Amino acid sequence: MVFAHDTEAALLAAVELVNSAENPDTLTETAQLADFLHRHVYTGMHTGDAAELADVRAIRAQLRRMLTSDRDTAVTLVNHTLAEHRAVPQLVRHGDIDYHVHAVPPEAALPVRIAVETAMAMIDVIRADDLSRLSVCADADCAGLVLDLSRNRSRRYCSTACGNRNAVAAYRARQR
To answer: Which residues contact 154 (CB under 8 A, 6 or more apart)?
Structure first.
């Protein structure tokens, strides 16, 4: 494992959330938000209504900037997010998940929890000087984010669809 479990989980969720804004937008209905929350276990209060969906959609650009910035800019964005939401890190344990860090109370709004958990995860990435683990998809027609947790740092595409499309294009080019 490259990072602690909660760091990986927050980064995976943030990348999926940011990529949901790519065309076609895959976070337009409350049911899609519920599916996202099922895949990425965010504890605390969830209203599941259209207002919460709109608020979660609204933080995608902020998270994208945090995840794709250079190190010094990322530090500024992380510090701003943590200060804005008065984050107080605490170790918690719930369900099947052993001790991990939460920095906002369970009653904090979902977009606040997502932003703060992403910022907390970015602390580990920044401290490890490992921002190269986050990049933009190598497909020329895609702006999706890539989280590379592989040992050899070989992941270049945000999805198998982008990877397959490029592999087929390369194969066809070789055949010509």
So the answer is: 148
What Rg do the C-alpha atoms of the chain give, in angstroms? 17
Task: Give the helix/strand (H/E) hosting 168.
Answer: helix 160-175
Q: Are 103 and 120 in contact (CB under 8 A)?
A: yes
What angle, 0 to 180 degrees and rounded to 10, lies between the N-to-C axes of helices 5-19 and 60-68?
Answer: 120
Cα of 137 vs its chain's centroid, Å: 14
Residue type at 81 in one-letter notation: T
First to last CA, the chain: 42
pLDDT in tens, 111-167: 999 999 999 999 999 999 999 999 999 999 999 999 999 989 899 999 888 888 888
Instruction: Give the pLDDT score at 92.
Output: 93
* DSSP bridge partners of 102: 90
Which token pair is 112?
Answer: 């606040």
Residues in the chain: 176
